[in-house]
Write a structure and sequence with these properties.
CATH topology of the largest domain: Heat Shock Protein 90
Distance between the termini: 38 Å
Number of strands: 5
Strand order of the largest sheet: 1-2-3-5-4
Number of helices: 7
Radius of gyration: 22 Å
Shape: elongated
Order of helices and strands: HHHHEHEEHHEE
CATH architecture of the largest domain: 2-Layer Sandwich
Oligomer: single chain
CATH superfamily of the largest domain: Histidine kinase-like ATPase, C-terminal domain
Mean pLDDT: 81
CATH class of the largest domain: Alpha Beta
């Protein structure tokens, strides 16, 4: 009888610890989202407005200068315009309210477009099946953050030329595959990286299957299996 009670106390203790860990992860994610939202608003409202003003000034300068320097001023104006578009697109990808309003597919599409405009990598998106609306809009944000982390790591470390994203709506699950053709990595080396830990933690919040495979000199593949109908 004593041993049985002891075992139950141990089980209860483990469950309480698991619940505490889950709440801690959720709190951390909420803090991160608020921070990203703030940064996104600052980019849009402050940096964006500064770039708009600079672009307007460039147009005035272009009309005032002589022909021999006009092309250089116009090139600078085009660079400012591109920078403004990038800041606006980036601010949208950071703001969770915008992501919720746009929806998961549109947000991923915008991010792929942004990557292509950067000319740092050639990206493509394939959507299969009929779109399913998530019961919990926050899940869309968490899923997108996982993909965003993968995109960021690819640009920083992979030296990849191509990035392929597939969103597959199946009857019970949303299957997502992201693949790059970069240099890959040694999984044992990257296990402790903050990026991988963040992706795993976010997957756990969604009860999603998370798998990251990489072959050195061949590339990296991320697969996510999200049970949206059981969320």
């Amino acid at each position: 009888m004593f041993q049985k009670r002891k075992n139950q106390l141990l089980i209860d203790s483990v469950k309480q610890q698991q619940k505490f860990d889950e709440e801690l992860i959720k709190t951390q994610q909420e803090i991160q989202e608020e921070t990203l939202k703030h940064v996104g608003r600052e980019l849009h409202d402050n940096i964006g407005q500064m770039l708009v003003l600079s672009s307007m000034q460039m147009k005035v300068a272009s009309n005032a200068v002589k022909d021999e320097v006009k092309s250089k001023v116009d090139n600078a104006a085009d660079a400012l315009k591109n920078a403004l578009e990038e800041v606006r697109a980036l601010s949208k990808s950071l703001n969770s309210d915008v992501i919720s309003n746009l929806g998961f597919d549109a947000t991923v599409k915008n991010e792929v477009t942004r990557l292509n405009k950067s000319m740092l990598i050639e990206s493509c998106l394939t959507i299969i099946g009929e779109k399913v609306d998530f019961e919990n809009k926050k899940d869309e944000i968490i899923l997108f953050r996982i993909l965003q982390e993968f995109f960021s790591n690819t640009l920083k470390y992979a030296e990849a030329e191509n990035l392929k994203v597939t969103i597959d709506y199946q009857e019970q699950f949303l299957n997502i595959t992201v693949e790059d053709d970069g240099i890959g990595f040694n999984k044992e080396t990257v296990e402790k990286s903050s990026g991988l830990i963040n992706m795993k933690k976010r997957s756990e919040l969604l009860n999603a299957d998370f798998k990251l495979e990489s072959i050195e000199e061949k590339g990296t593949i991320l697969t996510l299996k999200y049970p949206y109908k059981n969320a």
